[in-house]
Amino acid sequence: MAWFARREGDQLPPAAQFWSITIYDGITQVLVSNPIDRYLLNTPMEPNWIKNDDGGYTFYVQHASPGKDKEVNWLPAPEGPFYMIMRLYEPSLAAQKGEWQAPKPRLVE
Prior knowledge:
Blueprint lengths: L1 E6 L7 E11 L14 E3 L14 E6 L11 E3 L5 E10 L1 H4 L9 E3 L1
Parallel strand pairs: 4-5
Antiparallel strand pairs: 1-4, 1-7, 2-3, 2-6
């Protein structure tokens, strides 16, 4: 089972300074141990991500690697339950007012 989050280029979190999405184990509530030592997606990583043809991004949130060619866009998840927390540092006014909503991840089986 895998989740993926599709982001259009202009749907990245609107933060003037920095944003991050961190994944936690849903049972232990700690960071998820994984083979690539990645626990989050964040602003400094953006230049390395692979863009879709339309300029957006697809992020893979799953336990197993989506394949070497897609690992740059992979957020490793535990085999069991997990949760993610998004943090925006100096969020846009639209985010502060609740007018901007993060696109929801979709389950892929």
